[in-house]
Amino acid sequence: MTSVFHSGLSKDFSLILNDADDYNVIIQVVPITKKNDMIMFEKPNITPTVFEMVLKFLYTGEVNLVDQSGEDIFGLLIASDELLLDELFKYVQDHLFEKHTSWMHSNFVLVLHFVFKLASCKKLQDYCLQSICTDPQPFINSKSFSSLDKDVLLGLLKRDDFQVEEIVIWNCLINWVIEQTPGLGSKNCNRTKWNQENFEELKKTLEQFISLIRFVEISPKDFFDKIRPYKAAIPNHIYEEIEEFYYKKTFPKSTNLIPRSRKFQIEIESQVIKPDLANVIAHWIERKDDVKLLLREKYKFELIYRSSQDGLTHQALRSKCNNQGSCLVLVKQPSTTKIYGGYNPLGFTSGSQSLVTNESFTFSFENDKDTTSMKISRVVKTNYAMWEHNGNGFNFGSTFYMIDQSIYLNYNGNYDGNVVANSSFNSNFVPSLIEVFKVIPNVSK
């Protein structure tokens, strides 16, 4: 049988490995001088211990990792990738997960430095980043953080589960960037002594990271004290958007707005928007003077009407939504990904009357997960914020309203012009879907 020959061949290879006295190739794993006319492959990055394990695997198909250190096993992982030993690579990677997680936790910077350069190490990359995000403080406070590889830092900043306050992330980033910038670092870290050239160099290093900072989660005080001093190193268009956000509460378009902590993500049973946008809407509901995004489930969204199951008429909407308290309306435009919506803090009632509030708003999203092109219009004429009429499904100041089966959008000055821009904007359509949610404050949070 073929397997028998394989078994005998493996034994022959094992004898060659242990007793060979005739050879014409030397693989150099530590610096030695060239001898005679032997062909020599230099591999100084592979230790003798690791290469002995590689040879054993090549000659016998066996590898014993029981008594090996985490450092040597990790070295074997790198060597097996470099030598294209896929079977060995997969085995060693699994062994690291199962037996040496403590060693990896103590050497995250070292491990990440190598695994982010290896496409085949995606599993190990994800494990390390997830572990850091679960307990980030030891990692970001470590002395080795300043030597973190650029791709690793980018990977961390892109994650929504990196559970660290955003201003702490900014401080870590700016310190890392200073260390990596030519002419700065520990010998020139006093920004009051920097010249224009220093700031320009800092800007080049910072540029690829700046859009990943969630500025909407940073307080005005921290912005003034800790971000404003680096204005010269931030691209002008981004800085202007951030400044406008703090002065006028207009959301920036060039930075990420999604809250990082998925642990506290608000959930919504919607077929119109993704849960990320529920957090944005909760922010809009809550935000007045406080610009900090609220994550800890301060609101619950309870579905009370869906046109696909309850009927697409203003009567069906009213029968489900009247006297329910504060409500969120979501409308999906047909044949596009566009979404319109509005927040009614007073709730729907019966009869014909104008309701007064300064807390209502309308909004639009380009699609169900849009966080860059979204728009919000807050009420301007509070006496005409909400119009109650039995012939309307809902009516936000005759700017965004429903009559029979149709949705109408018009500009009349009752809401600011962010969503419905001007008097020339006039649109009506039969929506593909309408949802209404009861907005419930979570008093336990």
Residue share in β-strands = 15-25%
Counting DSSP E segments of at least 2 residues, the number of strands comes to 14
**Tell me about the biggest sheet?**
6 strands, antiparallel
SSE pattern: HEEHHHHHHHHHHHHHEHHEEEEEEEEEEE
Shape: elongated
Query: How confident overall, as mean pLDDT?
Result: 81
Total number of distinct structural domains? 3
The strand line-up of the biggest sheet is: 3-14-4-5-7-8
Short description:
The protein folds into 3 domains: 2-106, Potassium Channel Kv1.1, Chain A; 166-248, no CATH class; 267-441, no CATH class. It is 39% helix and 16% strand.
Could you outline the blueprint of secondary structure elements for this entry?
Layout: H1 2-19, E1 25-28, E2 39-42, H2 48-60, H3 70-82, H4 86-99, H5 101-106, H6 108-115, H7 122-134, H8 137-140, H9 150-157, H10 166-180, H11 196-210, H12 220-227, H13 236-248, H14 275-286, E3 299-306, H15 307-310, H16 314-321, E4 327-332, E5 339-344, E6 353-355, E7 361-365, E8 375-378, E9 386-388, E10 392-396, E11 400-403, E12 406-410, E13 426-429, E14 433-441
Parallel strand pairs: 1-2
Antiparallel strand pairs: 3-14, 4-5, 4-14, 5-7, 6-9, 7-8, 10-11, 11-12, 12-13
